[in-house]
Amino acid sequence: MSTIEQVALLAKVSVATVSRVVNNSAYVSEATRERVEQAIKKLNYQPNALGKLLRKETTSMVLILLHSVDNPFFATIVQGIEKVAHENDYNVLICNTYGDTEREQHYLKMLRNHLVDGVVFISNTCTSDEINYLNATFPVVQVVEYLTDIDAAHYSIDFYQAGRDLMDILYKNGHRSIGFVHTGSTEIVSSKEKFRAYKDFMKERRLPLITNYPDECLFGYANAKKIAGDLLDKHPKTTAFFATSDLLACGIIDELNFRGKSVPKDAMVVGFDNTSYAYVGKPNITSVELNSFQLGAMAMEYLMSKIKNKPVAHNNKCLIPYQIIERESTKKDSR
Amino acid sequence: MSTIEQVALLAKVSVATVSRVVNNSAYVSEATRERVEQAIKKLNYQPNALGKLLRKETTSMVLILLHSVDNPFFATIVQGIEKVAHENDYNVLICNTYGDTEREQHYLKMLRNHLVDGVVFISNTCTSDEINYLNATFPVVQVVEYLTDIDAAHYSIDFYQAGRDLMDILYKNGHRSIGFVHTGSTEIVSSKEKFRAYKDFMKERRLPLITNYPDECLFGYANAKKIAGDLLDKHPKTTAFFATSDLLACGIIDELNFRGKSVPKDAMVVGFDNTSYAYVGKPNITSVELNSFQLGAMAMEYLMSKIKNKPVAHNNKCLIPYQIIERESTKKDSR
DNA sequence: AACGGTAATGTAATCGATTACATTCTAAAG
DNA sequence: CTTTAGAATGTAATCGATTACATTACCGTT
Lengths: 335, 335
Fold this sequence. Notes:
Number of helices of chain A: 13
Largest sheet of chain A: 6 strands, parallel
Strand content of chain A: 5-15%
CATH architecture of the largest domain in chain A: 3-Layer(aba) Sandwich
Number of domains of chain A: 3
Radius of gyration of chain A: 26 Å
Helix content of chain A: 40-55%
Largest interface: A-B, 45 and 45 residues
Shape of chain A: elongated
Strand order of the largest sheet of chain A: 2-1-3-4-5-11
Number of strands of chain A: 12
Oligomer: homodimer
Order of helices and strands of chain A: HHHHEHEHEHEEHEHEHEHEHEHEE
Distance between the termini of chain A: 67 Å
């Protein structure tokens, strides 16, 4: 790899002139420019970003921290973030933390080290204090998942109300034995709020809770089936399920089918996030559309304002409207 | 943000000593160490990685370039890559290129600029010459998708043979009117090889080709249904479909159901990649398991060897075994 | 010829670390 | 009381860029 010095040497000019040619930043005579460009081509010179970044104080890159990209729901948020980033000539780096604090800290070091200009948390394992500290020093924003009791901005939806809306659908369809099924972390705001919605709804109607939450929250599709099976063993008369994701809903339907029950005739199921699983699953699954592209875009807009020290356009603790998408899994007359 | 100089000043030592404390790299007396650590704590000092990286020539980070994380199939490859990376104290940055050359070039600049130590291509838009050049200068590896006529290493499977195996299943089940459905890029080796397998298989048996490939390769689920619909309009007697992905297979099954045909009774369908769609879809879909976790791990092992200048353990143009997973969508006696 | 203005280029400080080399200090050995 | 090894610390060069400031070259005015 050649350096600016080698180029300067070959072109018989100073490094300053080479820099001027590369960055088009000041007067350079046509003849010199030509000579420098020749030298650059000959040496196949690529400016080393480290030198540049060390001098400048900006990188035109932001980090996206999330649990893992294997959830297709996250992909849409990322796309929203990327759209706004690209409009601002920024690029994004996506990092899987797998909910591992140590790994998250490693990536956050990139922020503290000025290797990136800001961070979007789609999920995090930080303490409130830590995010508060980061937020005081660096551009930081949370999207979809967020910590409530902190200064950092967030863009999300009202998971509690969305949860109640789903419960309403099941209830209005006559269901009284409604189960709540969740896998994965119980520490995230979405799962807490969904459960609070379920719990409140059932308690207000003096109905018994039927759930694995939060005692046994394994991960993945196979475990979803197992949990649904366990609940059905304990509460065989359960006729409706609130699953906290579409994939879980698919697992529950599978288990119901396995036990000879058909959806929505014998039991109804709702999911969450309106991912492709919601319409790939048979029957299609009633779900909640979060407008995650828009959420990602709004969060990134906020972050860009912070980075560029401009006033922030919208409220920085923002819950935007969601849509309930009713599908076959809660339609009485279907099939 | 405080610098090493401020710490040195506060602790009344030289920057060299601070650096020694931080990196534990040479003799430092207990008393001094204490004093420096106090100063670090008081100033909340975080070493600026740029300074360090500029001096050192390694970053302990690699880039993963792929089309977009919205394909859950990629997530497993990434996990394999990450496993080996973490074992070597490396971290990975995932970058969506959306098949956009310009964006890809931007990220590759990070490689040329020494912001990362190497690159894993899961898909690329580079020319052969470009990859050859990169490969000559930097640690580079391709996984799953690859360019054939170049020096760079790749880890993948024999898509051609896998395609023929799938065709065999459909053929042995008595199907003669077999359609081939693809959406997305036609420029990638997997789609080329799958199609070649289909074409050869059909031609050897003097059967007519029924396909949209490569004339009209739109993206996504909705388009899959449309394409399947078009093929069925033109060739109503088509009784089997080779879909190049599981999600496509789901779309085709949907369209078949819409037209009153049931799978596998009236028509059979096979997918590819053995993603969660393959078992979420109803009926479950026969697919090809690529062992993508292992592929990712092997590719990253190769990359680590290159980065550390160690001899490479396995052949660097490697096609590993795959598995055909037969499910309901090709089972004659099912339902 | 002297002057001034501007275009063109160069010099050297700077960013924040690491580290080769130099220097000082300490304590044990002779 | 030297001598000396090696522990402890400091000085300054270095990585590869950018850029403030200095300098030179050139040209047109008066």
